[in-house]
Design a protein that fits this description.
Low-confidence stretches: none
Number of helices: 11
Radius of gyration: 21 Å
Strand content: 5-15%
Shape: elongated
Strand order of the largest sheet: 3-2-1-4-5-6-7-8
Order of helices and strands: EHEHEEHEHEEHEHHHHHH
Helix content: 40-55%
Distance between the termini: 38 Å
């Protein structure tokens, strides 16, 4: 049996989502391995998707192999040095899903020869509707970019950034963004219930409305502001509601994204200082 071509460090929800996407795309189970210290989690992935379960130890990595870091950002200082020699020997391609951990920090931990790419997917990857932001520095060749995109495209759309300084903003907007939308859905559902709707009805109305509005904005390629004006009659019900939303929604959105950006930058500083 040949060695696995794609190896995951970590067996959490994002590893599961990407593995599921790869299998849906036709990648054979024997081409995928998951490395994790908890046998029950990696064995569950092996059972569910027919992949290979391995303990947390590093293994030999071929030059065309892809290693996906899907463990917690705070663990990079502990985990990555164990993989350095194996990755340098290939050198295998390294994809990091760790929020806030810069390319410089990853290169410091893995060595300058290892092609390092930063990738930030989001949780809709679980149903193949993810949005992944990717960054690769000038040392990463086109072949490595294509390999990374092949893996992440299995769970949704990919978008490249050429300025790593924008990764914190992309993480705050798209990486964390599904939680914001889900909180908004919760609020809409609760508001509907307060007006007398059964909760199941309010949930369907809220989720389908948000889904439809997002699809309308995406598929018509029209600015959200223009679409909003098209459905807002003067002195109508929509205008009355929007007057309330405008009292604080934009400021709250800006503060929320800024808080996520600040946290991402703090993670980067902590890692660079060796304190993560």
């Amino acid at each position: 049996m040949s060695e696995p071509r794609i190896r995951f460090i970590g067996a959490g929800n994002m590893a599961r989502a990407i593995i599921a996407g790869l299998r849906r795309q036709g990648v054979a189970g024997e081409e995928i391995a998951v490395h994790a210290p908890h046998p029950e989690r990696r064995e569950a992935l092996a059972r569910d998707y027919g992949i290979i379960s391995c303990d947390a130890d590093a293994v030999t990595v071929a030059a065309d192999s892809i290693v996906v870091y899907a463990a917690k950002p705070k663990q990079v200082e502990t985990i990555l040095p164990r993989w350095r020699a194996a990755l340098e020997a290939g050198p295998g391609i390294f994809l990091s899903l760790a929020a806030g951990i810069t390319s410089a920090s990853l290169k410091r931990l893995l060595g300058p020869k290892v092609p390092v790419l930063r990738c930030m997917p989001n949780t809709p990857a679980q149903i193949g509707a993810g949005m992944t932001t990717l960054y690769a520095d000038a040392s990463v060749v086109a072949e490595h970019r294509r390999a990374a995109e092949t893996v992440l495209a299995a769970v949704g759309r990919c978008l490249w950034l050429e300025d790593e300084g924008l990764m914190d903003a992309a993480t705050a907007l798209a990486g964390s963004g599904p939680a914001y939308v889900l909180l908004f859905l919760e609020a809409l559902e609760d508001a509907g219930v307060l007006q007398g709707l059964p909760r199941a009805t309010a949930r369907i109305l809220a989720s389908e409305t948000v889904l439809g509005a997002a699809r309308l904005a995406q598929e018509t390629d029209t600015a959200p502001s223009l679409l909003r004006h098209q459905v807002t009659s003067p002195a109508g019900t929509t205008a009355a509601a929007l007057a309330v939303w405008e009292e604080g929604l934009r400021t709250l959105a800006q503060r929320a994204v800024q808080a996520a950006v600040d946290r991402s930058r703090a993670l980067a500083r902590a890692t660079e200082e060796g304190k993560s």
